[in-house]
Specification:
Length: 445
């Protein structure tokens, strides 16, 4: 999630100016974005049909599955996601007349941001709100069959929530994260996520804790929005190494998702459910192709090539996942345990985290699984110090040490007395994942 490079007329120059318009990077409100889109002539009203996705974990993967399936069916798809890993452009994928969409180019993005900046007139506004307005502009100016919008934070007061009549709403798994903005309890956080449910619009709900589901069901009842709940109205399970999806419209027997980890079966299921409740009549072949062509960087991503991968012994494995909360850590640990069962290797974690996250809750998932933790700094404000992170790991029984950076940590990991050669996982933060992809020379495209 590196910041854009500044330069005259560049994305970075505009971005730097936008940062000065509001003292806080996150300040949830709809008033500022409503004022700006009105000044822009309401580009959000010129969007193609929208599917809107909120949740704590899995929303980006769910969007990626939907995009892959829709594009396999020949649909033109706009996609707005956040955060970016290496370049700001990653947040804006524009449909093309034929084939897969492409990330917006530098000049077009800088122009859209500049137009939003001019219409905003120096009034207080957050960078995310400005970026969302730019997405509305870009997507309204390029033909597409459908647009996929991922919530930035929460839902109820997120800038994307001025979309008033989506085809469908999706809420992936809700868990404790961003408590300083969304509330201290699961119910409070679920209330914010459920704020994307619109009157009469069908909503697809992934597996939830009982407290979260009850909140979502109450909001849907108020909105008279039909719900399609995992385990009640649809299922997505692994059977004989394949994904079997079933709902009232029938069964799909599909290849296992290309995104690794058992949690991705449910994310794929939520994507399929959303496309079906949205009334999109897609051929079974599109769902099959979507499972094997889906791509979503830094989610149990194997780095088999690149500058960082070359720092390990050839027989080692290097993996990357941007998970950063306790539930995300649980999913990652389960995926690693599955790898361990298939091909045993000692696990080394290279971990960097933000001080705002539950580091102990995240790391506890790896006790009994990781042989060594190497804590590294992240080049971000509010990053947890590597020394503090290493101390937390040691306190819960994970042998730990401090690394200077990712490259030096990989060098150390490759020289540990471990046999066979280790499986190394870089994890703990999307910021760290972005640094890793940039250093490896494999940014998202």
């Amino acid at each position: 999630m590196n910041e854009p490079t500044a330069g005259a007329g560049s994305i970075g120059a505009v971005h730097a100016r936008l940062l000065a318009l509001h003292p806080k990077r996150i300040d949830l409100s709809l008033g500022r974005i409503e004022r700006l889109v009105a000044a822009l002539g309401h580009p959000e009203r010129g969007l193609p049909p929208v599917i809107h996705v909120a949740g704590t974990n899995g929303k980006g993967s769910t969007v990626a599955f939907m995009r892959a399936i829709l594009e396999a069916a020949g649909q033109r798809v706009h996609v707005y996601t956040s955060p970016n890993l290496v370049r700001l452009n990653e947040r804006f994928r524009l449909a093309r007349p034929e084939g897969e969409g492409q990330l917006v180019g530098d000049a077009e993005l800088a122009d859209a941001l500049g137009e939003c900046e001019a219409k905003n007139g120096g009034a207080p506004i957050t960078v995310f709100e400005m970026e969302t307005a730019a997405a509305f502009l870009l997507f309204s100016r390029h033909p597409a069959d459908i647009a996929l919008f991922e919530v930035g934070l929460g839902g109820r007061l997120d800038a994307t929530n001025i979309i008033d009549k989506p085809l469908a709403s999706v809420i992936t798994r809700v868990s404790l994260d961003h408590r300083d903005f969304l509330g201290e309890t699961l119910q409070a956080i679920a209330t914010e996520k459920a704020g994307i449910i619109k009157p009469g619009v069908p909503a697809v709900i992934a597996s939830q804790a009982g407290d979260a589901l009850a909140v979502i069901e109450r909001q849907a009842a108020r909105m008279k929005a039909p719900l399609k709940i995992a385990g009640e109205h649809w299922t997505a399970t692994e059977e004989r190494g394949r994904l079997v999806y079933q709902d009232d419209d029938g069964l799909l027997d599909l290849p296992a998702p290309r995104l690794y980890g058992r949690h991705q079966f449910e994310n794929a299921g939520a994507a399929i459910a959303a496309l079906r409740v949205a009334g999109l009549k897609l051929p079974p072949a599109a769902y099959e192709s979507g499972m094997v062509r889906v791509d979503w960087p830094a989610r149990m991503q194997r780095l088999a090539q690149g500058k960082l991968a070359c720092l390990l012994p050839p027989e080692s494995e290097l993996w990357l996942d941007g998970g950063h909360n306790a539930d995300g850590g649980r999913a990652i640990a389960a995926a690693i345990a599955d790898l361990e069962e298939r091909v045993p290797r000692p696990l080394v974690l290279i971990v960097g985290m933000m001080s705002t996250k539950d580091s102990e809750g995240f790391l506890r998932n790896f006790t009994g699984l990781a042989r060594r933790v190497i804590a590294v700094p992240i080049q971000q404000e509010k990053a947890q110090s590597a020394a503090t992170l290493a101390a937390i790991a040691s306190r819960i029984g994970l042998p730990s040490m401090v690394g200077r950076d990712i490259a030096s940590a990989l060098d150390v990991a490759g020289k540990l007395d471990l046999h066979p050669a280790p499986r190394v996982l870089i994890t703990g933060s999307l910021y760290l994942a972005g640094e890793a992809l940039a250093a490896n020379g494999t940014p998202p495209v």
